[in-house]
Amino acid sequence: MTTHDRSLPGPRRRTVVATLGAAGLAAALSACGDGDSKDSADPADAAAPEKGGAGGAVLARISDIPVGGGKIFKDEGVVVTQPTKGEFKAFSNRCTHKQCPVTSVEGGTINCPCHGSKFDITDGSVKHAPAPSPLPTAEISVDGDAIKLA
Prior knowledge:
By secondary structure, this protein is of the alpha+beta class. It has helices spanning 13-31, 43-46, and strands spanning 50-51, 57-61, 69-73, 78-82, 89-92, 104-106, 109-111, 118-120, 126-128, 140-143, 146-149. Helices cover 15% and strands 27% of the residues. Strand 4 (78-82) and strand 5 (89-92) form a beta hairpin.
């Protein structure tokens, strides 16, 4: 047989390459989950938020948010910070670079593990790229010792 004989048994090269490419793409996409696996959730974050009446759901007590730090509420999609004693701010928990969820608040910044972006806890501004823009603010209210979604 010659190399030009198209009647060879088995799949054609084009079919094999296309099938392998599709399988590789499927594997890559399944590996790029959003990191919101319930298996790795912090049990403290898994509790249903209390209802806070007209002001929204109670996220936390003011004592739960450290001064100079913050806490991430994954299920609610927000980060609440306390830059100075008694001053509370809230931001989206999604990095503005590739929408990865932020995973820590330390050293005065809200930190994204995907590509190293860091955001200021006082105003959500970018402190370390590649994030192109600040974290969007979120509306919260403080009612007594309760921090609520507005």
